[in-house]
Every structure is written in structure tokens, then in C-alpha cells.
Amino acid sequence: QVRFVESGGESVQAGGSLRLSCIVSGIGFSRSTVAWYRRGKIPAREWVASSSPTDETYRDSVKGRFTITRDNTRNSVFLQMDDLTPDDTGIYFCNRYPPYVDDKYWGQGTQVTVAT
């Protein structure tokens, strides 16, 4: 059964840091590209960062501030977020990349709120 369970979201002040975690099941995790997405001011989820078995990629607005890592022994992916800004506020989700289209393959997400 495909499942993504996110955690770690909190309310923080601008300039603060958070570390998000996601436990993945039901996919060949070690062979898969997994990613973080977020839903902020716009309804659609936007891609934030990806981790393939060999490298990582980031959207321009988070480069140098966010770091995606993975632990294949625990089928987990993490997102270290530093120097947070209010524009980073949103619900953060993890999923494979490219993501599943069907909402039943998405988790609840974890809420990140960055206050000024």
C-alpha cells in the first residue's frame, strides 16, 4: 500500500529553522526519486525539492536554504529548512517524483507557518 506520512511542521519566526520528516511505504524507495511539495497561497501543490538515488535538485527560491536528504534504511526523506521566510508558509507534502495524480496517494501533509 502506497503511503506517505509527513511530520515536523510548526509555527516559527522568520529566520528560524525546521526539519520535516516523511516515512514512505509501498514503493521501491531506494530506487525512487522522492520529493517535497507545498501548497501555499495558490491551491496547487508546487514542487520544492527532489532526491534521486544520485542527486538532489531544488526550486530556485529555496536553494541555499533548504536541504533534502534521505535514509534508505528507514524509507524516509527529510527536509531541513533554514532561514525561513513568510513565503515558505504552507502545507508540505512528500511524494514520489513525478508525483501521483490521484489524491488517494497523498498524505495529510504537515503545516509550516512562518511569522514575521
The parts where pLDDT drops under 50 for at least 5 residues are none
| Average residue pLDDT | 97
Helix content: under 10%
Radius of gyration of CA atoms, rounded to a whole number: 13 Å
Strands in their spatial order, largest beta sheet: 2-10-9-4-5-6
Total strand count, please? Answer: 10
Ordered list of secondary-structure elements with their pairings:
Blueprint: E1 3-7, E2 11-13, E3 18-25, E4 34-39, E5 46-51, E6 56-58, E7 66-71, E8 76-81, E9 90-96, E10 110-115
Parallel strand pairs: 2-10
Antiparallel strand pairs: 1-3, 3-8, 4-5, 4-9, 5-6, 7-8, 9-10
Can you walk through the features of this model?
There is one protein chain. The protein is mostly beta strands and 116 residues long. It is 0% helix and 48% strand. The chain contains no helices and ten strands. The chain has strands at residues 3-7, 11-13, 18-25, 34-39, 46-51, 56-58, 66-71, 76-81, 90-96, 110-115. A six-stranded mixed sheet has the order 2-10-9-4-5-6, with no helix packed on it. It starts with a strand and ends with a strand. The model has no long low-confidence stretch (mean pLDDT 97).
Features of this protein?
single chain, 116 residues, mainly beta, 6-stranded mixed β-sheet, 10 strands, 48% strand, globular
Short description:
The protein is mainly β. It contains no helices and 10 strands.
